[in-house]
């Protein structure tokens, strides 16, 4: 199969769809790989690194799309790429369709085979291709939240770990999934007081077992959210509905309850956000302030640490890329139920119920 690795052109996205090590695996299996010049530079990989393992370098993103049977990338195609996606071309990437009708309609119109990293699902319900980026984003949420709590960044001026004689900052984590666990771990490591909310008691029991005593758990409902937003300095939104839009757990009126200069990091923003006042931002312009509350809503947080993120991503995507390349998408998805769940749009038809529900489409066909 001919596989293309284009350069990511989303704002400040420095990750790349595959490392040279991953390309080597594909080439050794007899596949042809085209990499756009400069695609790996943001992650620390030169064109020469890719050439050494057998990749062919192309000058433009249009050339990569035009020649490839399968496109492997990191983020969803943006408007400039819509017209480059071809009929029957496999596009394997993070799509998060439920947060963008424009993207969904564009990919339907392209008649491509859209397989989303974020909905590939193991039999135990885990999301193997989303997990490493959720781990990165969860840890980064505390890094960024701590920074934007500083007064020069318009924050409240709170040091999360406190100092002797001064209590630590308070962190509220919404969701005890991968993002939430990693955020709580980082915040606890800094010495902050952490409250983590979820509706899944099994997850809360797990958190209670593995976290130190200054991480406390509580069942998530509107009453408890309203209670805690009034007393916490940093709020991390880490909820996930597989393939669908995130629920709005923090409403506009709740901002009035919060301390001036409190910070919200909405990690769920790429799925529509779990805060009513959220909208996607970029690393170039990451925050905005509403009702004196700082909102950090970067939709591609792991893009800020591309070396770590690209290695972590290729570790988990490569086996699926190899399967798709070796067998073709139909046989690969038929043989692998986990990969089959990654199918989102097939030749213009929405085949994932999360997208269908988000936009009122009919789910017409699945493999």
Automatic annotation (TrEMBL):
Catalytic residues (UniProt): 96, 270
Sequence ranges assigned to domain Alanine dehydrogenase/pyridine nucleotide transhydrogenase N-terminal in this UniProt record: 4-137
PROSITE patterns reported in the protein's UniProt record: ALADH_PNT_2
A GO cellular component entry from the record: plasma membrane
Enzyme class (EC, first level): oxidoreductase
Binding site for substrate: 15, 75
Cofactor: Mg(2+)
Binding of Mg(2+), residues: 323
UniProt-annotated binding residues for NAD(+): 134, 198, 203, 220, 239-240, 267-270, 298-301
Pfam families: AlaDh_PNT_C (PF01262), AlaDh_PNT_N (PF05222)
Membrane-spanning intervals of the chain: none
Record field: catalytic activity: L-alanine + NAD(+) + H2O = pyruvate + NH4(+) + NADH + H(+)
Alanine dehydrogenase/pyridine nucleotide transhydrogenase NAD(H)-binding domain location: 149-297
Matches recorded under InterPro entries: Ala_DH, Ala_DH/PNT_CS2, AlaDH/PNT_N, AlaDH/PNT_NAD(H)-bd, NAD(P)-bd_dom_sf
Key words, A-Z: Magnesium, Metal-binding, NAD, Nucleotide-binding, Oxidoreductase
Gene Ontology BP, a term: L-alanine catabolic process
Cofactor binding summary note: Binds 1 Mg(2+) ion per subunit.
Domain of life where this protein originates: Bacteria
EC number(s) reported in the record: 1.4.1.1
GO terms of molecular function: alanine dehydrogenase activity; metal ion binding; nucleotide binding
Matches recorded under NCBIfam families: alaDH
Similarity-based family: Belongs to the AlaDH/PNT family.
Name of the featured protein: Alanine dehydrogenase
UniProt organism field: Robiginitalea myxolifaciens
UniProt lineage: Bacteria, Pseudomonadati, Bacteroidota, Flavobacteriia, Flavobacteriales
């Amino acid at each position: 199969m001919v596989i293309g690795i284009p350069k990511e052109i989303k704002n400040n996205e420095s990750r790349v769809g595959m490392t040279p090590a991953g390309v080597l695996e594909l080439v050794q299996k007899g596949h042809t790989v085209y990499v756009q010049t400069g695609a790996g530079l943001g992650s620390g990989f030169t064109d020469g690194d890719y050439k050494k393992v057998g990749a062919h370098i192309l000058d433009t993103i249009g050339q990569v799309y035009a020649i490839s049977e399968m496109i492997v990338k990191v983020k969803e195609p943006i408007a400039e790429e819509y017209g480059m996606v071809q009929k029957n071309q496999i596009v394997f990437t993070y799509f998060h369709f439920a947060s963008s009708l424009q993207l969904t309609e564009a990919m339907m119109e392209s008649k491509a085979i859209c397989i989303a990293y974020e909905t590939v699902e193991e039999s135990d319900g885990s999301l193997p291709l989303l997990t490493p980026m959720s781990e990165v984003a969860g840890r980064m949420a505390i890094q960024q939240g701590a920074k934007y709590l500083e007064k020069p960044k318009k924050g409240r001026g709170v040091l999360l770990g406190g100092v002797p004689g001064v209590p630590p900052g308070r962190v509220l984590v919404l969701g005890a999934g991968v993002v939430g666990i990693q955020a709580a771990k980082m915040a606890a490591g800094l010495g902050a007081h952490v409250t983590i909310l979820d509706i899944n008691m099994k997850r809360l029991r797990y958190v209670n077992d593995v976290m130190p005593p200054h991480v406390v758990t509580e069942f998530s409902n509107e009453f408890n959210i309203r209670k805690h937003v009034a007393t916490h300095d940093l709020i991390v939104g880490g909820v996930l509905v597989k393939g669908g839009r995130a629920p709005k757990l923090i409403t506009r009126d709740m901002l009035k309850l919060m301390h001036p200069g409190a910070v919200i990091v909405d990690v769920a923003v790429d799925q529509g956000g779990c805060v009513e006042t959220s909208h996607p931002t970029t690393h170039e312009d990451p925050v905005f302030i509403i009702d004196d509350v700082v909102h950090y809503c970067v939709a591609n947080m792991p893009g800020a640490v591309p070396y770590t993120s690209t290695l972590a991503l290729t570790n988990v995507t490569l086996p699926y890329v190899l399967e798709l390349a070796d067998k073709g998408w139909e046989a690969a998805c038929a043989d692998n139920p986990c990969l089959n769940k990654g199918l989102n749009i097939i030749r213009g038809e929405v085949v994932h119920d999360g997208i269908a529900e988000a936009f009122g489409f009919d789910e017409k066909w699945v493999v």
